[in-house]
Design brief:
With 301 residues, the chain is an alpha+beta fold. It contains 14 helices and seven strands. The longest helix is centred in the N-terminal third of the chain and has 24 residues.
């Protein structure tokens, strides 16, 4: 086996990990693949004979590529949830059947990277996002993160600390009993669907947190919206009861959600954030362009 073949094999061993890094940085599965491929090109062009920790080297390379991609997104300096035209932009969901993700998706979703967390990460500035993702999620030391950012280790530490405070305030805490939490969330999601299908406004309000935030991303050609409050969200859920009728249970970024399927095509993906038995956030993807890339048969639902 040639030296190049050995290098390619070693890279493929690290590819799932690198995809996980890139997904957290970019929130896009397609762009994450592009970033990983760019890392492969850089590996081919580099002399790595002195690299003792190839996984660490590749992780920082992917981080740098993702940082450049975030900074080059011309529409925004940071990544607000709404673009300059008021459209909501949700991260790409990672879908699996209700029985759990396959090994590849399991690696992608390690560390409970639910859609709620991905949305918070999307609101961080590029430098904050890189410092937090590399250090807090992948244990990269700050003295290795600092050169990627062009800052001192102390400055990188401050960026991660600032990001950590925002994440802790907005994303759910990790579950102490994941199995029990999944069962509880599934019960809440089922109650929501039952109420939506029956047009039961009171039952919907009862399962929603009073301060719920509902976000829908319809892409460039369909209306997107941001709604707040149990009454307004319940009214909208009844309006779109047809999606509830076509809904099938699934895991969306590792937590109970639903996928609406009609005529063999995915019509919508709904992600639920549940705290204390109430839905605190509802994120709905109806963008036809992104939904068209979902393989229904592969989901097994």
């Amino acid at each position: 086996m040639s030296e190049k073949d050995v290098l390619a094999r070693r890279f493929e061993e690290h590819r799932p990990h690198l995809r996980a890094v890139a997904y957290r940085m970019l929130g896009s599965l397609g762009e994450a693949e592009d970033a990983v491929q760019e890392a492969w090109f850089k590996l081919n062009r580099s002399d790595t004979s002195g690299v003792e920790n190839l996984a660490g080297w590749l992780t920082t390379v992917v981080g740098r590529v993702c940082l450049d991609m975030l900074r080059s997104r011309a529409t925004r300096r940071e990544e607000p949830l709404e673009d300059e035209e008021g459209r909501v932009r949700l991260p790409d969901p990672v879908l699996s059947g209700p029985d759990g993700p396959d090994p590849e998706r399991e690696i992608l979703l390690a560390d409970s990277v639910g859609l709620a967390l991905m949305i918070v990460l999307q609101e961080l500035g590029p430098a904050e996002r890189l410092a937090f993702v590399l250090h807090d999620m992948f244990a990269v030391p700050f003295d290795e993160i600092a050169p990627v950012l062009g800052r001192t280790p102390a400055s990188a530490r401050q960026l991660a600390s600032r990001a950590r405070r925002r994440v802790q305030g907005a994303a759910p805490a990790p579950d102490t009993d994941p199995a029990a939490a999944l069962a509880e969330r599934r019960t809440v999601v089922d109650a929501f669907l039952t109420a939506a299908r029956g047009g039961d406004f009171e039952a919907l309000v009862a399962v929603l947190d009073p301060e719920i935030v509902a976000r829908s991303d319809g892409g460039a050609l369909l209306p997107s919206a941001l709604r707040r409050g149990a009454a307004e969200v319940a009214s909208q859920a009844i309006t779109f009861a047809r999606f509830a009728e076509a809904a099938r249970p699934a895991l969306v970024n590792g937590t109970p959600g639903v996928v609406a399927i009609a005529q063999g095509r995915v019509m919508s993906v709904m992600s639920f954030t549940v705290r204390d038995g109430k839905v605190t956030a509802l994120d709905i993807l109806t963008d036809p362009e992104r939904l068209a890339g979902i393989d229904v048969e592969a989901l097994g639902i």
